[in-house]
TrEMBL record:
It is found in: Cell membrane. Its main location: membrane. The keyword Cytoplasm does not apply. Keywords: Cell membrane, Membrane, Transmembrane, Transmembrane helix. PANTHER family: MEMBRANE PROTEIN (PTHR40077:SF1), MEMBRANE PROTEIN-RELATED (PTHR40077). Pfam families: DUF3817 (PF12823). It is a multi-pass membrane protein. The chain crosses the membrane at residues 39-60, 72-89. This is DUF3817 domain-containing protein. The keyword Transcription regulation does not apply. It comes from Streptomyces actuosus. Residues 9-95 form the DUF3817 domain.
């Protein structure tokens, strides 16, 4: 995995958890708006909207650079629209990055042994 691909996956991973948290807070604010006089929906809606747009931009970049198949790309997109999906996306992306580092080290060691 090259540095640009690793950076794209890292950006997506770093925005996925805050996007999930903002979605959950927005849901709580929506319930509070309907049950009390508290109305933070406009503020949280804007915050969540910005984070969601960033997630989609970073998702498209990661899809392009990591050359995911359609199933993997669709999975990461669906996780962005589920209330807690961002947490699962972050975990999977971290695992994917760790696996790529391990594979890269194995290729380097294999090259050093054969040389």
């Amino acid at each position: 995995m090259d540095i640009k691909t690793a950076s794209a996956l890292r950006r997506l991973r770093l925005v996925s958890a805050p996007e999930a948290v903002s979605f959950l807070i927005l849901l709580v604010c929506s319930v509070l708006k309907r049950t009390t006089d508290f109305n933070a929906v406009p503020v949280m809606g804007a915050v969540h909207g910005v984070l969601f747009v960033l997630y989609v931009i970073f998702w498209a970049d990661a899809w392009n650079r990591a050359r995911w198949d359609l199933r993997t790309a669709a999975l990461y997109f669906v996780l962005s629209v589920l209330p807690t999906g961002g947490f699962f996306a972050e975990r999977r992306l971290r695992r994917e990055a760790e696996d790529a580092v391990i594979a890269s080290r194995a290729r380097r060691e294999e090259g050093a042994v054969s040389a």
